[in-house]
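Researcher: Please predict.
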Amino acid sequence: MAFNDRTHVAVDYLYRRRERPTDPQSLSVWIEEQLDNIERAVQSLEDLPQVADTPPTAPKIGLQRYALAPWDPGQGSNRWYFWDGTNWVALPTNSGWAQFNNTAITSASPLAVAANTPTNLPLGDSGGVNRLSGDFASHDFVDGAGKFIPRASGDAYTLRLGFTLTPSVINSSITVELDIGGSQGVIYRDNRNIMIPVGQPGQLDFAVPIYALDTFLANGGQFRVETNMSCTIHDIYVVVIPNHQG
């Protein structure tokens, strides 16, 4: 679509006073031009982002409004929207991060993992720090089964999964997976060697970039571990960083 300042927002006009003519016969023309320029500048202010409780009658593409109740353009009042030519689209309100800990699985009561046996790694939702804002602030990212639950279809996140592992043999390895079920199944897998002394607890961390569509939203995501030796795991945590709001 070609750009047109009648259909697209283009607040690029600023009033600049021209030098007043010395010729008295030109003064009336100068005054009329100045009034026209002032009017044009004032009209362009309508395209600036501003608060409104009713929708504009003829919005231009790119127009932004902060929708106050009772106006609800589709995803709630009291938030910013822009007009895409067809619909009002909510601007993302995501920011911050949160850490959620599993305080039930501790060094005194660890998770036992048998050799070559896929084992669910339950997340927890307590004892952490929540610095999320906007639509993400009140969402429950971990359900009662210890699965990760995205907020909405279309969201994207970076997760940092961490836990403490105590290996029973040297030359060991671990595979971490994230399974969302359905036809998608495993959407993340990382296999690595364990460089932790036998019998000593050591920290492992994994960066997990994900995006969520309907299957993920419906089933949640189950983290799973598999090792080539028996071990114990405790102090499981996940840091959630929203990257995109769907």
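Model: The chain has a mean pLDDT of 88.
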